[in-house]
TrEMBL record:
Presence of the UniProt keyword Glycoprotein in the record: no
InterPro entries on file: Ribosomal_mL64, Ribosomal_mL64_sf
Keyword terms of this UniProt record: Cell cycle, Coiled coil, Mitochondrion, Nucleus, Ribonucleoprotein, Ribosomal protein
Protein name: Large ribosomal subunit protein mL64
Pfam families cross-referenced by the UniProt entry: CR6_interact
TM regions (residue ranges): none
Family assignment from sequence similarity: Belongs to the mitochondrion-specific ribosomal protein mL64 family.
Length: 284
């Protein structure tokens, strides 16, 4: 009986202990949860406050930056005494003339390539635009096929042929120069002879003119002005007579030359006939 009571008493005590432990654990867990919630709430409040402060600070900073930028722009505007347009002033200071497209050709690939080639990365143009497109590559290939139709081997052959032709032409020119150089003394002599001949003709013409003038003056028997009409008429008649005499002399000389050639031809014919007759007589 006593053992049964002890067992029951022990069971009751254990049951109460378990309940107390469960209650204690439940209270402890709830306390930890509430503490965690309080910490999260405090953290969120702190974050919200910090975010608000940051936003206010950034807004203030942006406003300050805008004010500073406006002041700097105003200062630069007052400094600019050249009265140049903005694009011209940018060109003067080696900057991109336009910060944004102002005309239709500013959007072309050619213009963008030009800006990148001149100003580099500061132009704001993507470097990939420098590379040609497929259509441009095809056009370049077609152009090269038309403009440069020969292969490297063909070009080398043509260059060698052209070089040989130039060397041959140079050699022929040098030979021609040497031949002409050999005749240089002869040509000099001919030039001197022709010059002397022309000089003699001029002197003869002057002497002839002086002689005719003197004959005209003798005809009148007194000094007369060469500008006088009578002097001019008589001088013209004298010149006509001289030309007629010269013409007759040339005609006579030509006739004499023809007669001489005829005589030579007749003598040559007679000599040939004599030789033929002698040959005929010598035959058996």
């Amino acid at each position: 009986m006593s053992s049964l009571v002890k067992s029951i008493t022990h069971y009751v005590v254990n049951t109460r202990s378990l309940r107390n432990v469960a209650r204690f654990e439940s209270v402890f867990v709830r306390r930890q949860v509430f503490q965690k919630i309080d910490q999260n709430v405090k953290y969120l409040k702190t974050v919200a406050a910090d975010t608000k402060l940051i936003e206010e600070a950034s807004t203030t900073t942006e406003e300050d930056d805008e004010v500073t930028a406006r002041k700097e722009e105003e200062i630069q505007r007052k400094r600019n005494k050249s009265r140049l347009n903005p694009q011209h002033r940018n060109l003067l200071h080696e900057k991109v003339p336009y910060s944004e497209p102002m005309d239709w050709f500013h959007e072309t690939v050619k213009y963008k390539r030009k800006m990148y080639g001149r100003y580099g990365q500061s132009s704001g143009v993507l470097p990939g635009i420098m590379w040609p497109t497929r259509e441009e590559l095809e056009e370049m290939k077609e152009y090269e096929s038309v403009a440069y139709p020969y292969t490297i081997q063909e070009l080398m052959t043509r260059a060698e042929t052209k070089k040989k032709e130039e060397q041959e032409a140079l050699k022929a020119r040098e030979e021609d120069i040497m031949k002409k150089f050999a005749k240089l003394e002869q040509w000099k002599h001919e030039v001197k002879v022709n010059a002397a001949k022309k000089l003699a003709e001029v002197e003869a013409a002057k002497a002839k003119k002086a002689r005719l003038v003197e004959e005209v003056r003798r005809h009148f028997g007194f000094k007369i002005d060469p500008r006088d009409d009578r002097f001019k008429e008589l001088l013209e008649e004298k010149e006509k007579e001289e030309r007629k005499k010269a013409k007759d002399a040339k005609k006579k000389a030509r006739q004499q030359l023809v007669m001489t050639r005829l005589k030579e031809q007749m003598q040559l014919t007679q000599e040939e006939n004599r030789i033929v007759s002698d040959n005929v007589e010598q035959k058996p």
